[in-house]
Design a protein that fits this description.
By secondary structure, this protein is of the alpha/beta class. About 30% of the residues lie in helices and about 15% in strands. The strands form two sheets. Strands 7-6-8-9-10-11 form a six-stranded parallel β-sheet, with helices on one face. Helix 3 links the parallel strand 3 and strand 4. The longest helix has 18 residues. The radius of gyration is 21 Å and the shape is elongated.
């Protein structure tokens, strides 16, 4: 059995891998693309994401399992993997703590308008009053996508006294279903996007949703940039239809320097840094891979197995 693994993880993985496993360690995209042709197992996370897509499309018929550090699967050729019968395990939970903290950062920065505080600092000004006066206590948050990250966001906001409502497919435990939340979006102070990127979530926040939000409400996106209709958001920011937006991901990435979102009023962009704002990502990813390797070889249930039909 052959595995194609990142050379960066070699110091962590190699001492703990089965001795009968043939391993090819890649450090460049061209190497991964060549090695995967006859591989059974592959961990080939690369940037830009098209490199992963190209490599996986060139994989041979033996490919049984693909592991990724990413939680979102929008960069993967799911149709190809489905046709091969390949198992795909994602990195859901690896970055959950860091991303959840970033979401809370977004809410706090919006409530206290910390962006304006930083700009005053850069001008060496001493404001006579605070630019942001919202207290999180007794505000309401809607979290669209109550998975590993969404639940952590909710727990942390509740500690501030925020009333949290989640959106899930099932509507269990008091959450709203996908067909209901839009009718209630106007009751929330914070609309937080934490859902996986699928065909159903693309442009899920558009002109109608933005128009239905409170004029003081903020949109916080720590999921994927394509969940928001940018033209509608830019129009809403310029017209004051919503309080503002805190965007970790954007569409595209990197966001071009001349993109109008950079200069839109009441908009904070954090360059998709949320998942990288930690020091334990690679160690957690390696530990998850090793647990799944043991389960894979033993024919036991693996962690984070993605549903290739749903896309997460």
């Amino acid at each position: 059995m052959k595995a194609v693994l990142p050379a960066l993880a070699r110091p962590i993985l190699e001492p703990q891998l089965p001795t009968d496993l043939e391993v090819a360690w890649w450090s460049k995209a061209a190497e991964a693309k060549q090695m995967i042709v006859d591989a059974d197992i592959a961990w080939i996370d690369m940037q830009p994401a098209r490199l992963m897509d190209e490599a996986l499309r060139g994989a041979g018929p033996n490919l049984k399992w693909v592991s990724t550090i990413y939680a979102g699967l929008d960069a993967f050729p799911l149709d190809v993997l489905r046709a091969k019968g390949t198992i795909l395990t994602n990195g859901a939970g690896i970055n959950a703590l860091a991303v959840a903290e970033y979401a809370v950062l977004g809410v706090l920065a919006a409530a206290k308008r910390f962006d304006e505080v930083i700009r005053a600092h850069d001008r060496a000004e001493w404001p006579a009053d605070a630019p942001g006066k919202i207290e999180l206590f007794e505000t309401k948050a809607l979290i669209v996508g109550l998975g590993a990250i969404g639940r952590l966001i909710g727990e942390r906001l509740e500690a501030f006294g925020v009333t949290v409502t989640g959106v899930t497919r099932s509507g269990s435990d008091g959450t709203l279903t996908p067909d209901v939340w839009r009718d209630q979006i106007g009751t929330f102070d914070w609309v937080i996007l934490a859902a996986p990127s699928t065909g159903e979530t693309k442009a899920m926040i558009g002109a109608n949703e933005l128009a239905a939000m409170k004029s003081s409400a903020w949109l916080i996106n720590i999921a994927r940039g394509d969940m928001i209709d940018d033209d509608a958001l830019i129009a809403a920011l310029h017209s004051g239809k919503i309080g503002g937006a805190f965007l970790d991901p954007t569409n595209p990435e990197p966001l071009p320097a001349d993109h109008p979102l950079w200069k839109a009023p009441n908009c904070m962009i954090t360059m998709h840094l949320s998942g990288r704002s930690q020091t334990k990502m690679f160690q957690r990813a390696a530990a998850l891979f090793l647990r799944n390797m043991a389960a894979f070889r033993a024919g036991e249930p693996m962690e984070n197995v993605a549903d290739l039909d749903r896309g997460y």
